[in-house]
Amino acid sequence: MRGAFHRITRLTPVLAIAAALIFPTTASAAVTSIQVVSGELVAKGAEVDLTISFTCTAGDTVMNPYGMGGGLNASLQQAVSKTQQASGFGSGGGQTCTGSPQTGVVQVLATVPGPPFRVGPAVATAYITECGPTGCSSASTAPTAIRISH
Q1: Strands 61-62 and 120-132
Q2: In this predicted structure, what is the pLDDT of residue 29?
Q3: C-alpha dihedral sign at 59, 60, 63, 65
Q4: How far is CA 72 from CA 3, 23, 61, 139, 146, in A?
Q5: CA pair distance 117, 92, nearest whole angstrom
Q6: Which CATH number describes the domain made up of 2-149?
Q7: Where does residue 93 fall: left (phi above 0), alpha (psi -120 to 50 degrees), or beta otherwise?
Q8: pLDDT at 12 (0 to 100)
Protein backbone atom coordinates (compact mmCIF):
# COMPACT_ATOMS: atom_id res chain seq x y z
CA MET A 1 0.00 0.00 0.00
CA ARG A 2 2.78 2.42 0.95
CA GLY A 3 4.65 1.73 -2.32
CA ALA A 4 1.51 2.35 -4.37
CA PHE A 5 0.98 5.72 -2.65
CA HIS A 6 4.53 6.80 -3.49
CA ARG A 7 4.15 5.74 -7.12
CA ILE A 8 0.92 7.73 -7.37
CA THR A 9 2.58 10.75 -5.72
CA ARG A 10 5.40 10.64 -8.26
CA LEU A 11 2.92 10.38 -11.16
CA THR A 12 0.84 13.41 -10.09
CA PRO A 13 2.83 15.98 -12.15
CA VAL A 14 2.78 13.72 -15.19
CA LEU A 15 -0.98 13.20 -14.90
CA ALA A 16 -1.65 16.94 -14.54
CA ILE A 17 0.36 17.75 -17.67
CA ALA A 18 -1.16 14.82 -19.59
CA ALA A 19 -4.68 16.03 -18.72
CA ALA A 20 -3.80 19.50 -19.98
CA LEU A 21 -2.58 18.04 -23.26
CA ILE A 22 -5.46 15.58 -23.73
CA PHE A 23 -8.28 18.07 -23.16
CA PRO A 24 -7.88 20.87 -25.70
CA THR A 25 -8.67 24.44 -24.78
CA THR A 26 -9.64 27.38 -26.91
CA ALA A 27 -6.47 29.36 -27.41
CA SER A 28 -7.39 33.01 -27.23
CA ALA A 29 -5.48 34.13 -24.18
CA ALA A 30 -1.73 34.20 -24.48
CA VAL A 31 0.93 33.59 -21.88
CA THR A 32 3.82 35.61 -23.23
CA SER A 33 6.58 34.45 -20.89
CA ILE A 34 7.44 32.21 -17.96
CA GLN A 35 10.74 31.51 -16.22
CA VAL A 36 12.04 30.12 -12.95
CA VAL A 37 13.84 32.93 -11.11
CA SER A 38 15.11 31.37 -7.88
CA GLY A 39 14.72 28.66 -5.26
CA GLU A 40 14.87 29.04 -1.49
CA LEU A 41 15.41 26.12 0.90
CA VAL A 42 12.70 25.74 3.57
CA ALA A 43 12.27 23.39 6.54
CA LYS A 44 15.72 21.79 6.36
CA GLY A 45 15.20 20.75 2.74
CA ALA A 46 11.71 19.30 3.02
CA GLU A 47 10.57 22.13 0.74
CA VAL A 48 11.96 24.57 -1.80
CA ASP A 49 10.01 27.74 -2.58
CA LEU A 50 10.46 28.43 -6.29
CA THR A 51 9.89 32.00 -7.45
CA ILE A 52 8.49 32.03 -10.97
CA SER A 53 8.17 35.10 -13.20
CA PHE A 54 5.41 35.20 -15.82
CA THR A 55 3.47 37.58 -18.03
CA CYS A 56 -0.08 36.81 -19.13
CA THR A 57 -3.11 38.55 -20.63
CA ALA A 58 -4.55 41.31 -18.42
CA GLY A 59 -7.76 40.24 -16.69
CA ASP A 60 -7.23 36.49 -17.13
CA THR A 61 -6.70 34.16 -14.16
CA VAL A 62 -3.84 31.74 -13.52
CA MET A 63 -5.81 28.52 -13.04
CA ASN A 64 -6.32 24.94 -14.10
CA PRO A 65 -9.57 24.67 -16.08
CA TYR A 66 -9.95 21.00 -15.05
CA GLY A 67 -9.85 21.62 -11.30
CA MET A 68 -6.66 19.60 -10.63
CA GLY A 69 -4.06 21.63 -8.78
CA GLY A 70 -3.27 25.21 -9.63
CA GLY A 71 -2.45 26.90 -12.88
CA LEU A 72 1.16 27.54 -11.87
CA ASN A 73 3.09 24.27 -11.52
CA ALA A 74 6.75 23.44 -11.00
CA SER A 75 8.98 20.42 -10.63
CA LEU A 76 12.47 20.31 -9.19
CA GLN A 77 15.25 17.72 -9.25
CA GLN A 78 18.63 17.80 -7.55
CA ALA A 79 21.57 15.39 -7.30
CA VAL A 80 22.25 15.37 -3.55
CA SER A 81 24.92 12.65 -3.67
CA LYS A 82 26.53 10.33 -6.21
CA THR A 83 23.64 7.89 -5.80
CA GLN A 84 20.64 9.96 -4.68
CA GLN A 85 18.31 12.46 -6.35
CA ALA A 86 15.92 14.73 -4.48
CA SER A 87 12.81 15.59 -6.46
CA GLY A 88 9.42 17.16 -5.99
CA PHE A 89 6.43 18.90 -7.51
CA GLY A 90 4.21 21.77 -6.42
CA SER A 91 1.38 23.91 -7.69
CA GLY A 92 -0.23 27.25 -6.99
CA GLY A 93 -2.21 29.82 -8.86
CA GLY A 94 -5.23 32.04 -8.53
CA GLN A 95 -3.47 35.25 -9.51
CA THR A 96 -5.24 37.72 -11.78
CA CYS A 97 -3.04 38.56 -14.77
CA THR A 98 -2.00 42.19 -15.18
CA GLY A 99 -0.39 42.05 -18.62
CA SER A 100 2.92 43.04 -16.98
CA PRO A 101 5.60 40.80 -15.44
CA GLN A 102 4.40 39.15 -12.22
CA THR A 103 5.86 36.61 -9.83
CA GLY A 104 4.39 33.66 -8.01
CA VAL A 105 5.86 31.28 -5.46
CA VAL A 106 5.34 27.54 -5.84
CA GLN A 107 6.07 25.38 -2.80
CA VAL A 108 7.84 22.21 -4.00
CA LEU A 109 7.85 19.43 -1.42
CA ALA A 110 10.59 16.79 -1.52
CA THR A 111 9.18 13.41 -2.59
CA VAL A 112 9.01 10.84 0.22
CA PRO A 113 10.77 8.48 0.55
CA GLY A 114 13.75 10.29 -0.74
CA PRO A 115 16.41 12.68 0.40
CA PRO A 116 15.65 16.31 1.21
CA PHE A 117 16.79 19.15 -1.03
CA ARG A 118 19.92 21.07 -0.09
CA VAL A 119 21.65 24.33 -0.97
CA GLY A 120 23.25 24.06 -4.40
CA PRO A 121 22.50 23.47 -8.06
CA ALA A 122 19.22 21.92 -9.23
CA VAL A 123 17.06 21.72 -12.34
CA ALA A 124 13.57 23.24 -12.37
CA THR A 125 10.69 23.23 -14.85
CA ALA A 126 7.61 25.46 -14.65
CA TYR A 127 4.23 25.29 -16.39
CA ILE A 128 1.43 27.88 -16.41
CA THR A 129 -2.18 27.90 -17.59
CA GLU A 130 -4.22 31.10 -17.76
CA CYS A 131 -7.93 31.29 -18.53
CA GLY A 132 -10.16 34.15 -19.57
CA PRO A 133 -13.67 34.65 -20.90
CA THR A 134 -12.80 33.25 -24.33
CA GLY A 135 -10.50 30.35 -23.46
CA CYS A 136 -7.27 29.17 -21.92
CA SER A 137 -3.60 29.18 -22.88
CA SER A 138 -0.56 27.38 -21.49
CA ALA A 139 3.21 27.72 -21.59
CA SER A 140 6.17 25.97 -20.02
CA THR A 141 9.87 26.42 -19.51
CA ALA A 142 12.62 24.15 -20.69
CA PRO A 143 14.51 22.46 -17.86
CA THR A 144 16.41 25.32 -16.23
CA ALA A 145 19.49 25.15 -14.01
CA ILE A 146 19.03 27.15 -10.81
CA ARG A 147 20.85 27.46 -7.49
CA ILE A 148 18.90 26.69 -4.32
CA SER A 149 19.82 29.16 -1.58
CA HIS A 150 18.93 29.63 2.11
Answers
A1: antiparallel
A2: 52
A3: positive
A4: 28, 18, 11, 10, 18
A5: 20
A6: 2.60.40
A7: left
A8: 44
